[in-house]
Predict the 3D structure of the following.
Amino acid sequence: MIKISEVKNFEHIKIDWVEDGNYAVISINRPDKLNALQNMTLREIAEALEPLQVDPKARCVVLRGTKDFTKRPAFSAGADLSSRSGSDLDQHNLRHQSHAMYRRHKYYDLIEEFPKPLIAAVDGYALGGGFELVLVCDIVIASKRSAFGFPEIQRGIFAANGGTQRLIRHIGKYRTKQLMFFGDHYTAEQMYEWGIVAFLVDDDKFEEILHEKASWLGNAATNSLFVIKKCIDYGTQVPLNVGLQFEQFGYAVNSQSKDVVEGVTAFLQKRTPKFKGK
């Protein structure tokens, strides 16, 4: 088993384990900045996820803002505008600035490609780059006090960490333009109605429901979840007939899992299955 503590000491994030839930928690730990994102923040998240891909102890991962906030609760209030895109890049060179966004896209892509269930636990602000980080997760659990939005237009910039491309695939062209043209904040209730938020919970129930859902995934059939995620994320990027072939192959791969035997046996014996993630 790979131990995160043996891999790297992180500056912007911290890692916790929840033993009974079989899941890991990655917390953005910049409370004085409302968990604003720098390249280092995104790189550390991606680096933390890499060993978790093959660690049997972590069958689900929760991505969240630190619970120990100093100002206001936040998943992430967006990009840290006080940080530079890179000392090796010219702020006035078009090619350099395109490369700056390539660097950031790379980290978002790596996070999105994580093969196990990745939960975005949103309690507070999820704005700009923080909202874009939500969009690369699989399941969004949000407290009712949370707020979502893309305020970049108010600063003369726009959501360029994949936001214009990923959001439109969730809520359509016109709603995406509404969010990005005007820069308003939207409630968690609105995001729930639009299908971004999967579980909308009362503020005082947030930690309880988060643990419940993460534990369910952490104790579920991990290989099945792996195949489901691959089929949905990649099968929807190709024509239907190709996606169906992808699904058929995924079914064959999953059929070799020991958890399939356990699941079917438990059903026939009318008992709760005990999946091992194998």
Observations:
- The chain has twelve helices and ten strands.
- The chain has two domains: 4-218, 222-268.
- The beta strands are 13-18, 23-28, 60-65, 74-76, 118-122, 125-127, 139-143, 147-149, 185-187, 199-201.
- The chain has a mean pLDDT of 92.
